[in-house]
Amino acid sequence: MRFLHELPNYDLTYSDVFFVPSYSDVRSRFEVDLTTPDGIGTSIPLVVSNMNAVAGSRMSETIARRGGLTVLPQDIPHSVLVSMISYIKSRHTIYETPLTMTASNTINEALGIIHKRAHQAVIIVNEKDEPIGIFTEDDASGHDLFTRLGQVMSTELISVKAGQSAKSIFSKLHKERVHVAPVLQGKKMIGVISQKGALRTSIYSPAVDKKGRLMVAVAIGISGDVAAKTAAVIDAGVDVLVLDTAHGHQKRMIEAIKKARSVSKNLPIVAGNVVTAEATHDLVEAGADIIKVGVGPGAMCTTRMMTGVGRPQFSAILECAPAARKLGKHVWADGGIRYPRDVALALAAGASSVMFGSWWAGTYESAGDVMRDQQGKLYKENYGMASRRAVRNRNIEIEAYEKARRELFEEGISSSRLYLDQKKPGAEDIIDHIVAGVRSSMTYAGARNIEQFHEKAVIGVQSTAGYAEGQAVDTSWS
Fold it and tell me: Residue 381 — pLDDT band, cuts 50, 70, 90?
């Protein structure tokens, strides 16, 4: 990457910079390969942050099915974590997980779960778990909430056979004017697939482990017996370990990395967060494979306003990425993502993947429950991982006096209302939105993969007015 003009003597955010188009022989965005250069096995450079209100089983399987990675939070009890990892690993790598109920369940019960999946349908099954009908939210119109599903479901059930090509599935559903259909292997339902899902299977490759199962990462803290915690998550089947703390350049983090490395064998270790080359060097030397870069840019984080500590994210990546690369390692850009352009800029600055949380929070697949406001609009709640709410949950087993002391100090928002975007309500919609932008950015730079993008990208620095000029105008300006 090079700058169009001389690099200014102050640090830069994503909003401060822009891409300059270069000569390109890349004819289409579909020629672009987004496989991550860090070698962990992801085929798109998107990582879901380990936020309690965001990263759960649904998010993990959905993101991995499209090639990305989700980091499960450190606050999850180990017994629950083991079952979550087992569940994620058991999910189909192509077909989506169905929501199922019986004909004796009620409309009210179906509406309670229907917003947990972007396909927005409940498959009605018999006592042999064979599909006999389908229920969507439209089927509830005009009926009492306690009406049995058997009375309102559609029995004209269109299904597809496992193993059919994406094109044939899409063509069938499109012809029948069906949004989603169960996928059958014989008489057994092994998943569901939508028209968009069929298209996505032809565009994305799942992130899978050596056994062909969906990948998942887990975060652990740097306190306590790190070696034992590392061994426990390895036994549970985790693919990537994330050592997570707000201030990564400290003695306890370096000791934690060494302890985790002593038992982790070949398991990739991600550690952070840091914002300097010196910190990156020290964490890599301790045994980390990937360094998480970013202090304070997150939407739920108040660290910079509370403490003044942090660094503009673009410059932080720009400094840390070469330091990691010099040692044969990589960085993830963590936080500060508002638009697809920000992901592209992070990759151009040298990140191998881009990690964020709040944007995912307002989707069907995030860990929170869907709620409605007084106008009937769907939303979910989100909160920062250094907020009082997160601290309270994390220290639930600590005695009251010590817990109250810790709750006095917070550096995050405890409650934020994120409305589901009617046009992009699912995590996969966000993936489509970002990947389209990043691939286009790479074609403008003449790059066919992320490493080429980093080499070929030309960056300019702009004023606030320059940034505003690039924003679309959705109302008349006259």
Answer: confident
Q: Which of 169, 201, 233 is the last residue of a domain?
A: 201
pLDDT digits (tens, 9 = 90+) for 7-47: 999 999 999 999 999 999 999 999 999 999 999 999 999 99
Closest CA to 72 of 40, 49, 94: 49
Q: Is residue 325 part of a domain?
A: yes
Q: Which residues contact 472 (CB under 8 A, 6 or more apart)?
A: none
For residues 138 and 202, the answer to whether their CB atoms sit within 8 Å is: no
Q: Whole-model pTM? A: 0.90
Q: What would the two tokens of residue 134 be?
A: 């389908």
CA separation for the pair 371, 111 (Å, rounded): 12
Using alpha carbons only, give the angle 163, 169, 173 rounded to the nearest 5 degrees.
145
Q: What is the per-residue DSSP string for 304-370?
A: HHHH-----HHHHHHHHHHHHHHTT-EEEEES---SHHHHHHHHHHT-SEEEESHHHHTSTTSSSPP
In a domain, 349, yes or no: yes
Please work out, in degrees rounded to the nearest 5, the angle formed at the alpha carbon of residue 449 by the alpha carbons of 446 and 454.
70
CATH classification of the domain holding 112 = 3.10.580.10
Extract the tokens encoding 249: 């350049």
Tokens linked to 305: 């306003």
Check whether residue 85 and residue 107 sit in a common domain.
no
- Residue range 284-343, pLDDT digits in tens: 999 999 999 999 887 777 788 888 889 999 999 999 999 999 999 999 999 999 999 999
Rounded (to 5) percent helix, strand, coil in the chain: 35, 20, 45
Residue 334 near residue 273, CB atoms below 8 Å: yes
* Number of separate domains in the chain: 2
- Catalytically annotated residue among 53, 301, 323, 331: 301
Question: Which domain, by its residues, includes 183?
Answer: 99-201
**Residue 6 phi, psi (nearest 5):** -60, 140
Residue 320: active-site member: no
Other beta carbons within 10 Å of 23: 7
What is the rounded CA–CA span in Å between residue 99 and residue 111?
A: 11
End-to-end CA distance of the chain: 40
Identity of residue 39: G
